[in-house]
Amino acid sequence: MSLELKLKGNWNELKGKLKEKYGELTDDDLTYAEGQEDQLLGKLQKKTGAAKEELRKMLFEK
């Protein structure tokens, strides 16, 4: 089920913010391909234990 989400802002900037907040994330964890937003959210949620809604707001809402 596609969420049809679009990342807000510059992905490199968002990666930096995620790494600051969740120091355990690696570059591999933050590999993003257009159209794979659901997979990215799932991977981040599993790795960080953060709520999906928290991650969604951080990444996709302006």
TrEMBL record:
Where does the CsbD-like domain lie?
6-56
Gene3D superfamilies named among the record's database cross-references:
YjbJ (1.10.1470.10)
The similarity annotation says: Belongs to the UPF0337 (CsbD) family.
What PANTHER family does this protein map onto? UPF0337 PROTEIN YJBJ
Q: What is this protein called?
A: Uncharacterized conserved protein YjbJ, UPF0337 family
Query: Which species does the entry assign this protein to?
Result: Aquiflexum balticum DSM 16537
Lineage per the UniProt record = Bacteria, Pseudomonadati, Bacteroidota, Cytophagia, Cytophagales
